[in-house]
């Protein structure tokens, strides 16, 4: 209960552009400055828990987007949902993939497994390589979009790139 409140407070602070220190998170959760240490050894452990929650939310978004009966259209839906997640929650998205907190591809049984299952349904000759290509391409597109490096692409352009990827698998 307290752990969840601390993670939520840290996530709220992060998404409001604030730096979620243990002391600030404790204050936001209405507990003593030492209370977070019952659940987290340090700030890195707290932020790791926030990143894990981010991956869980990303998995939910990918599953929700994976509804089309056509496998390629469902893969396109996942790709666009991934980019939309990054745009909607940029601070969380960046934290999730920060070197100190990022999960290794395949570690996350939610988001990565959802993608891997969809790619496997396409009958790719090398599903692992195709899944990695899909993740890397869409992640790169999301990061470039967040960094403002693709100002002329827009949502239609993102859809075309993701569709091109899906068609190549």
UniProtKB/TrEMBL annotation:
<feature type="DNA-binding region" description="H-T-H motif">
    <location>
        <begin position="21"/>
        <end position="40"/>
    </location>
</feature>
<keyword id="KW-0804">Transcription</keyword>
<feature type="domain" description="HTH tetR-type">
    <location>
        <begin position="1"/>
        <end position="58"/>
    </location>
</feature>
<dbReference type="InterPro" id="IPR036271">
    <property type="entry name" value="Tet_transcr_reg_TetR-rel_C_sf"/>
</dbReference>
<dbReference type="InterPro" id="IPR009057">
    <property type="entry name" value="Homeodomain-like_sf"/>
</dbReference>
<dbReference type="InterPro" id="IPR001647">
    <property type="entry name" value="HTH_TetR"/>
</dbReference>
<dbReference type="Pfam" id="PF00440">
    <property type="entry name" value="TetR_N"/>
</dbReference>
<keyword id="KW-0805">Transcription regulation</keyword>
<keyword id="KW-0238">DNA-binding</keyword>
<dbReference type="InterPro" id="IPR025996">
    <property type="entry name" value="MT1864/Rv1816-like_C"/>
</dbReference>
<protein>
    <submittedName>
        <fullName>TetR/AcrR family transcriptional regulator</fullName>
    </submittedName>
</protein>
<dbReference type="InterPro" id="IPR050109">
    <property type="entry name" value="HTH-type_TetR-like_transc_reg"/>
</dbReference>
<dbReference type="Pfam" id="PF13305">
    <property type="entry name" value="TetR_C_33"/>
</dbReference>
<dbReference type="GO" id="GO:0000976">
    <property type="term" value="F:transcription cis-regulatory region binding"/>
</dbReference>
<dbReference type="GO" id="GO:0003700">
    <property type="term" value="F:DNA-binding transcription factor activity"/>
</dbReference>
